[in-house]
Amino acid sequence: MAHYPPYTSKYNPIEYRLFCHVTSACKGAVFTSLDVVKSLIDKTSTSKGLKVFSTIKNKVYATGRKVSENFKQNMKIVFDDYLGKWNYRAIPPSENLKLYSEYS
User: Fold this and answer.
1) Bridge partner list, 77
2) Where does residue 69 rank: exposed (0-12), middle (13-18), buried (19+ CB within 10 A)?
3) pLDDT tens for residues 4-45?
4) Are residues 49 and 37 in contact, defined by beta-carbon separation less than 8 angstroms?
């Protein structure tokens, strides 16, 4: 998981390079459905050849799920060398891999 600190999304290199092009591609369009938005975003590209791909997730996610009391003890968290406070990997215990894969 990689997170940018609060108020620093302007430094996200992907967002920074693409947002203006996505905005231009959607200029003047009426968003009547998700398909219209997706098609406009998918047609976006830059003069340097960078192309945008989008996916619509229709999955309904469960709300109010609780984690076990010993979640932090059982979940291995590996912090990256670069911005370790914000970038990390959560590695579930091997016996719970099936459980975690059901929710991804």
Assistant:
1) 90
2) exposed
3) 666 666 566 666 678 888 888 899 999 999 999 999 999 998
4) no
